[in-house]
Specification:
Elements: E1 2-6, H1 15-28, E2 33-37, H2 43-46, H3 59-63, H4 69-72, E3 74-75, E4 81-84, H5 93-96, H6 106-111, E5 120-124, H7 131-139, E6 142-148, H8 151-170, E7 176-185, H9 190-203, E8 207-213, H10 216-220, H11 228-231, H12 236-251
Parallel strand pairs: 1-5, 1-6, 2-4, 2-5, 6-7, 7-8
Antiparallel strand pairs: 3-4
Helix pairs in contact: 1-12
Length: about 250
Amino acid sequence: MKVISISNQKGGVGKTTTAVNLATALAAVDKKVVLIDLDPQGNCTTSFSIDKHTKLENSYGLMLGLTEVQNTIKKTIIPNLSIIPSTVNLSAVEIELFQKPRREFQLRDAISTLNDIYDYVFIDCPPGFGITTLNALTASDKILIPMQCEFFALEGLAQLLLTVKKVQRTFNKNLSIIGILLTMFDRRNILSKMVENDLREHFNDLVFDTKIPRNVKISEAPSHGKPVIIYDCKCQGAKSYIDLAKEFLNRI
């Protein structure tokens, strides 16, 4: 089982969209996948029309050790794809974990029993960097970094790379970056091309060849409770996420 965090300290860069559609694409080729929604906003959860539970059978209860991981897993409309839903209560985890022993390892310990059941675990991380994201990175084998094609995103990337190095030194020496994914790419926009060129110059093969374009179908799909690959498999956004899945499998 490979555990992949989809993370960026900046919000609005396509983390949830990437988590939902990459997981769906892999499930479509018979990989057994579970998504963990660690964002209190729960957008990953609502992308599959799943209610945000207020009890403990969710990522909040899992992070605090109040329930077993098997109790939190819910099936989605996609065969082979399950989800551990989020709840707004996750906002309190930063405080509630503060005095717990091994607080950085709560998630890793909780999901260790899934090893023989799933091929991939994807963790949709919240923006910012706190104990929740630290738990995700400590539990992960790889980190996938979605990045919007704009100048401020480059600054955010620099901060994230420093964070990854700190996690590698302190909590998880095996953590590595599987790739940087350009999202909301507009080939008509000179800035998008400039950001891409800078990234490829500095990070070379670490940047995925696949780019996710700006696409209205990607924005529409969550309101219908479906990944864009299911909502409109022929649109450019869906095709790009299918290409990403192929590239992901080659890299992993």
